Amino acid sequence: MTDSTEPAAPKIHIAASRAHDFVAAVLAANGVPADHASTVASCLVEADLRGHESHGINRLPSYVARLRSGAMSGAASPAVAPVTPCVGRVDAANCLGAVAARAAMAAAVDMAKGPAGIGLVGVRASNHFGMAAWVVQQAVDAGLLCLVFTNSSPALPPWGARDRLLGVSPIACGAPAGPRGRPFVLDMAPSVAARGKVYRAERRGEAIPEGWALDRDGAPTTDPARALEGVMLPVGGPKGSALAIMMDVFAGVLTGSAFAGHVASPYDASRPADVGHFFVALRPDLFVSANEFRDRMDYLYQRVVGAEKMQGVDRVYFPGEIELVTKEERERTGIPYVEAEIAALNEEARHVGVEPISE
Ligand SMILES: NC(=O)c1ccc[n+]([C@@H]2O[C@H](COP(=O)([O-])OP(=O)(O)OC[C@H]3O[C@@H](n4cnc5c(N)ncnc54)[C@H](O)[C@@H]3O)[C@@H](O)[C@H]2O)c1
């Protein structure tokens, strides 16, 4: 588990394939074409498999609310257009974020595999794409390195201020593994914890750790409901706040999407979100040979995981590795959900006549 608050309630385990089919069926019943529905389901289920339930299938009710209100378009498809031989522009046309992200990373990968060796794509008019590692994995699976940036709705103050202005959108990047290692997959919100973890704690009736958030009066809180009225705290003080601004410069200002506090929340069903993304994919053999790159990644991996452990630590992980360990376990055991989460998902299914995920 990578989330820091361990749920107390008993869990119902659901196989990943069942969760995928359920999500795809509910989305399809809400007017989303089957291929788009399957893409979004893959992204959400992968988050649950990797231990990031904050970005898993429990996002379904909020996505469906936006589809039903017309704030997000289930039927829309992203349009990819070239800007230069190694730069592309995507107008996501307010489609589902995972659909836009998949098309944009596919374009970046295609360009990186061409003579330029690099592909850079800016996306405008998109929506929340969920777990950034899912987008990173697409480039890593193609044997490439990548950067994955997005902006998001305001949740974090600039350092020294008290009102929400910046997103807690993830900074993510990746590199393929050597033959004996694991891929490098960094995927981190610039806040102490992702805001989705506060929503998850609220759903599950749990407290959040101190140091994650302030309430609306600027006081520290462990109550998720009060935290959601207030602000998230940046990781590393002004450094985290600067990273959030960096996401807005590349994913918002540069791409033509909303920025500076104007992206709508994925829980706001009243208006399009206008999220921006910025992706780069590049070949690993631009400066050293492909074999050398793999050997050097192996060496780095071994140096990191073989580092002398501090007291009380069982294992040193490479970025992204702790999630793979969780995924391997959940592929065997199923994904654990609490009853209230299953009930909310079944309620969505009932609305559109889809079989419940679990009785
Ligand atoms: N789409 C959005 O707008 C949005 C916004 C915020 C967060 N998110 C998602 O929320 C998820 C959670 O974000 P987070 O910042 O809370 O993640 P996190 O703090 O759990 O992990 C951050 C990074 O640290 C690494 N890590 C964690 N524990 C480790 C350990 N013990 N040893 C070595 N490395 C370790 C992880 O592999 C990861 O790369 C991410 O998947 C992110 O994409 C999405």
TrEMBL record:
Lineage top rank: taxon: Eukaryota
Family, as annotated: Belongs to the LDH2/MDH2 oxidoreductase family.
Pfam family, one: Ldh_2
Gene3D superfamilies in the cross-refs: 1.10.1530.10, Hypothetical oxidoreductase yiak, domain 2 (3.30.1370.60)
Molecular function GO terms recorded: oxidoreductase activity
Keyword Cell division set for record: no
Keywords carried by this UniProt record: Oxidoreductase
Protein name: Putative malate/L-lactate dehydrogenase
